[in-house]
Every structure is written in C-alpha cells, then in structure tokens.
Amino acid sequence: MKTYRDEAVVLRTHKLGESDRIVTLLTRSHGQVRAVAKGVRKTTSRFGARLEPFSLVDVQLYKGRNLDTVQQVDLVNAYAPALSADYQLFTCGTVMVETAEQLTDDDSATHQHLLLVGGLHALATRRHPPQLVLDSYLLRALALAGWAPSFHDCASCGMPGPHSSFHLASGGVVCDACRPPGAASPDPATLVLLGDLLSGDWGGAEGTSNRVRDEASGLVTAYLQWHMERRLKSLPMLERV
C-alpha cells in the first residue's frame, strides 16, 4: 500500500524550500523514515507544531521513491515543551534522539522506538535524575543494537566476576588474565552503577554519589563513541551536574 500509518518520534527536522520541511521519524513498525511535510512552516499549517523534535505522533504517510510525504499528524505526547524549558533535559534529550537516529535504519526498530519513548517520557516527567536516564538509555540502546557491555563477568573469556578492569574494545570488564594494556580501573561502585543502569535497578542507581555518576557517564560516553565510530554532534552541548 502506498499509504500507511504508524506511531513515530520526531528525531529532527530541516527546512526544504520556502514552506516545507523534511522530518526524520523513528516509527514503531517501519524503522527510520524521512518524509516531506508540505507547507508546515506557514502560519496556516494544520500540523506544523506537531512535527517538532521530541514529539510522539500518530502519523499517516504516503510512500514515495526517495522521501515519503506526511498526509496527517495527530499528537500523542508533546515532550518538547518540558524538555526545552530546562537546559539539562534538552541536551540529554538531544543526545538520545541523535543516538536513536544513528543506531536505526529503515528496517523495523520497534524495541528502539519503545526505548526512546520511555526515555523521553522519563526525562519530561523527571521520573529519575536526567544524567541517569540518559546513561541508562544509551546502554540499553547499544545493547539492542548488539553491543551489550558486560559489567560483571569478563567480556573476553566469560570468567565470572566481579572484575575491576574496564576495556572499551573488549566490551566491558575484563579479568586479570585478559586485561590488555590501557584498560581502565574505575571505582567498583561505578561498575555496579553501570550494571544497575543497564538492568533498570533505579533504587540502586539513585543511591550513588555524584562522583560515581560522573565516572559512569564518562565510561558510557566513551563506550558509545567507540562502537559507533563517530562523535555525536550533540555531546559537546551536554551539561552534566
């Protein structure tokens, strides 16, 4: 069918011509979609405000050869106002949507879509500290993409942990026998926190100190960029407190 409907998160937009926009969407059933939204920059547009980054929408699209066309949009949840009102929330959300864009393509990405919706909702409602929400999202998104880190058993040989060394290229913690030169030796509490964020143990995660959270965030960022083999444009904006 040329026309289809799906739930989607707006990842980003950019201008096209005088009144149109190209929107990048992460849909629930069709993966990442790029579509033209015609006339949305006009003041008379019926759905221009609904196609802002961070918005969760129910969208009807017409399938094209290169770009699809937005035909109808209903707003499911507008996360943009809450995220835009706080710099830390905004920067965390920006890193999340850029990561989602880099980790998905036009194949089905239902789990990545649901994870992103949950992360944006947790940020917008301040369910947990923003830094923890972001790091948890990044670890889980990487795990869904096939790069699940190990924070307990040795990532190289599988020897039961806990272990005290962390190595990016090996995929997480490593035992003494597998420890390569240059492996980091983070605080044991940091490795416990990372495991809690990956598994969703918020009680344990929220009981940690800022020092441990900052060290964990540094390892998450390094792990993300190592496996994506690029630096996210939004990372320099990130404010960690």
Q: Key terms for this structure?
A:
241 residues, alpha+beta, OB fold (Dihydrolipoamide Acetyltransferase, E2P), 2 domains, five-stranded mixed barrel, two-stranded antiparallel sheet, 7 helices, 7 strands, 22% strand, elongated
Can you walk through the features of this model?
This protein has 241 residues and is α+β, with helices and mostly antiparallel strands. The protein folds into two domains: 3-78, OB fold (Dihydrolipoamide Acetyltransferase, E2P) (Beta Barrel); 81-237, Up-down Bundle (de novo design (two linked rop proteins)). Helix content is 36%, strand content 22%. The chain contains seven helices and seven strands, in the order βββββααααββααα. It has a five-stranded mixed β-barrel. Strands 6-7 form a two-stranded antiparallel ribbon. A hairpin with a 5-residue loop joins β4 and β5 (68-78). α4 crosses α5 (188-199) and α4 (130-144) runs parallel beside α7 (210-228). The N and C termini lie far apart (49 Å). The model has no long low-confidence stretch (mean pLDDT 91).
Helix and strand topology:
Blueprint: E1 3-16, E2 20-27, E3 32-37, E4 55-62, E5 68-78, H1 80-84, H2 87-103, H3 110-124, H4 130-144, E6 165-167, E7 172-174, H5 188-199, H6 202-205, H7 210-228
Parallel strand pairs: 3-5
Antiparallel strand pairs: 1-2, 1-4, 2-3, 4-5, 6-7
Helix pairs in contact: 2-3, 2-4, 3-4, 4-5, 4-7, 5-7
